Amino acid sequence: MENLISLVNKLQRACTALGDHGEENALPTLWDSLPAIAVVGGQSSGKSSVLESIVGKDFLPRGSGIVTRRPLVLQLHKIDEGREYGEFLHLPRKRFTDFAALRKEISDETDRETGRSKQISTVPIHLSIFSPNVVNLTLIDLPGLTKVAVDGQSDNIVQDIEDMVRSYIEKPNCIILAVSPANQDLATSDAIKISREVDPKGERTIGVLTKIDLMDKGTDAVDILEGRSYKLQFPWIGVVNRSQADINKSVDMIAARRREREYFANSPEYKHLAHRMGSEHLGKMLSKHLETVIKSRIPGIQSLINKSIVDLEAELNRLGKPIATDAGGKLYMIMEICRGFDQIYKEHLDGIRPGGDKIYNVFDNQLPAALKRLQFDKQLAMENVRKLITEADGYQPHLIAPEQGYRRLIESSLITVRGPAEAAVDAVHSILKELVHKAVNETMELRQYPTLRVEVGNAACESLDRMKEESKKATLKLVDMECSYLTVDFFRKLPQDVEKGGNPTHSIFDRYNDSYLRRVGTTVLSYVNMVCASLRHSIPKSIVYCQVREAKRSLLDHFFADLGKKESRHLASMLDEDPAVMERRASIAKRLELYRSAQAEIDAVAWAK
């Protein structure tokens, strides 16, 4: 069982070292879940003397006013033999065998945190005492409750101390050691008053009655010690501390304990209670009770630790990695973030993420619809056909077929296909840019660095602009190629002018009648429609090859090439993370370290069993 108290001691020390003091903040706290015994009492209640009696040493600062101005986490470790010594968490390699020097260090460390003013601080001091004369126990000594501020203290010091004490004792895992002097009315006890507020049933409160030997003659504390005046779940324990005269004379603690035992054993009022009175019994009882509470809380602490580790790891992943310090590390970090962005972008195009299907919609719906809307009928109206054929013939009318007229009619019709072709290129370009913005937003790491986010987005869009220009050139060349060379087989398969029963001279001497011109227009329209059907398939191929394929292959190639030429200063400016995020990441990393350490400590105890 003793290793359970040792376990909690280690966890408390880790909490303090890694900044978990149980204050209200956005991070999960392990400190609040650890069972602890908080020592509460008013000034001059004998609180310090009780602690020194349990330890068996003079080690606490003394004086008038508020002496304890920071919580003191006092961890007692029983050793088999050897010299007694103390160690502070803030001085881990220094052993104090002189307890007067230890007392001075408590005062000095308090001043380091609060200054030489008489203000208070919630940051605890951790002190471990190793001795053959103590029981395994952890106590938290809190500032004494007071009713009046002294010179050098702010007017709200009274409320500040009460708030600090309450923040400790209101937690369900805290055992309250309420110290009250017997020579004052219990109804006015500061310790009983505040413990009753947070523990009205007295289930967590252990009452300690001091200064029993200083009560007025003819009075005693039997009603309190037997629980009739104020009942708690645990029996009251009376102690007789050294008087101020004893302290001034440096009366030995062993002698003081002997006198305490004799007092209770020889007093007619208290001898029936002597077996459960005194500081020695108090220490043993507290140790045993703390072990029992710790044992009952361990499963809950384990669950809290496991859940907190998962939550902290998830948030740490969300916040991303910390910024590298050297230029090479920064460059590598930027490259890795960009590769992550590039992968997400490809996933959009490949259908793993949504958005790429819009490109197919351009090819399957927008382009065919645009081609259908081309008004070839106006281009091939009879008057236009007549005009172009006549102009193409010039001074010499065509002999058999108006070949030049056909070419001009086809070219003037196909030239209008450039519009839908360019529109398809622009539509795909817009979709690719939209996917860039989506991928930027979905790349978690880019959220950390606004400048890098902008630069990556701009670089990707500039690459897409270059690809769009190349795609437009290639796509329009497809249209121009259809204009520059006609498919001869199409015309060879057309019916000839001379048909059965027809007039062979009609097509030679009457070339410009309506029937003939209508036939020419119909033939040209058929050819143009055939070419459009072909372009409907070849234009998407050109666009995919020049834009989509290139976007997947080399979206950030120019950016990477420029990146290698940049100086460390510029790389650092690109990784301009929000200082609040950096601070949050550091805090979470420290808290995660605490929980992992706690998990390892608990596992070690479990395996030892």
Automatic annotation (TrEMBL):
Compartments, as annotated in UniProt: Cytoplasm, Cytoskeleton, Phragmoplast
Domain of life: Eukaryota
Bilayer-crossing regions: none
One GO cellular component term: phragmoplast
Main location class: cytoplasm
Signal sequence, renumbered to the chain: none
MF terms in GO: GTP binding; GTPase activity; microtubule binding
Residues covered by the Dynamin-type G domain: 31-299
InterPro entries in the record: Dynamin (IPR022812), Dynamin_GTPase (IPR001401), Dynamin_GTPase_CS (IPR019762), Dynamin_N (IPR045063), Dynamin_stalk (IPR000375), G_DYNAMIN_dom (IPR030381), GED (IPR003130), GED_dom (IPR020850)
Keywords from the named record: Cytoplasm, GTP-binding, Hydrolase, Microtubule, Motor protein, Nucleotide-binding
Residue span(s) of domain GED: 517-609
Family note: Belongs to the TRAFAC class dynamin-like GTPase superfamily. Dynamin/Fzo/YdjA family.
Protein name in the entry: Dynamin-related protein 5A
Organism: Protea cynaroides
